[in-house]
Amino acid sequence: MSNTEPVPSVITCAETGTAARASVLSPRAVPLGGPRAMTVRRTLPQRSRSLIGAWCFVDHFGPDDVAATGGMHVPPHPHTALQTVTWLFSGEVEHRDTVGTHSFVRPGEVNLMTAGRGIAHSEDSTPATTVLHGAQLWVALPDATRGTAPAFEHHAPPELVGDGARTRVFVGSLMGHSSPVRTYSPLVGAEITLDPGASLTVGAREDFEYGVLVDTGDVTADGTPGTAGELLYLPPGAAELVLRAGASGPARVLLLGGEPLGEEIVMWWNFIGRDHDEVVALRERWQHEARASLEGPTPGARFGDFPAVWSEALPAPDLPNARLRPRGRRP
């Protein structure tokens, strides 16, 4: 997914110090697109916290009636130095990219795209979709691997069932199950559904920080309550996490975690860089290549050759009238 805000925020994505206790991050509504824009609830990045592990972007959308909203239509757009992780609860999204991928993502499956040195992709909900509901997540690549070759992976994790909980691990390892999709820093991502009043104790890595994105219902994470749309942040240090659903109904969450990145990064629009000048250069490169690549193959294109079916591309918005400043914990 693209950050299609017409004036994207200037965000210095960086770790803050660990919190003394769990905290609640409230979402902000962000419209993506035109008059019938699909609105997402964004909980990362924000002023109080920009990263959870290497997870740097959390958009949560739906359930949306596609007949009313028009669904998802994100024209071709670029990414660098990150991975996109798409996870759906309902609906179907068609994905195309410049490494030749044509894929669909459906509920209970994960699409993971590694941008590396540069990629472009498009995302569209399919005509069969009536209700669209899911999350798009970004992972910042560490400096040592951010120039890796772009790639795409698809995986349908098995459902783990027991004691009033159902779990699908789509990134990393949890509860004895591992996802085969490749990541470049220690991470975990899982969907967990709890029956009313049920609790689940999850073994945690003490060097990980965690986020619990509440999709539906009411949940407490280590005693901190959260409701639909909120992201509960838990700092490193715990050997286990206890999730409990409210008694009034079932609850569903995405559990996201990782080892703190320990690097300074700058995220602007769909690019991740390490300083202002790098982001400026990426923007200029995309503006040139987006025009040229619509005409046909472009030798040496950083963002790859466009599929023949693409007839448009998102232009980059204007840069702010200030230098983008990286901040955060240095390695």
UniProtKB/TrEMBL annotation:
The keyword Transcription does not apply. The keyword Metal-binding applies. Binds 1 Fe cation per subunit. Residues 39-139 form the Pirin N-terminal domain. Fe cation binds at residues 77, 79, 121, 123. It comes from the Bacteria. Its cofactor is Fe cation. InterPro entries: Pirin (IPR012093), Pirin_C_dom (IPR008778), Pirin_N_dom (IPR003829), RmlC-like_jellyroll (IPR014710), RmlC_Cupin_sf (IPR011051). GO terms for molecular function: metal ion binding. Residues 190-288 form the Pirin C-terminal domain. SUPFAM superfamilies: RmlC-like cupins. Keywords: Iron, Metal-binding. PANTHER family: PIRIN (PTHR13903:SF8), PIRIN-RELATED (PTHR13903). Belongs to the pirin family. This is Pirin. It comes from Actinorugispora endophytica.
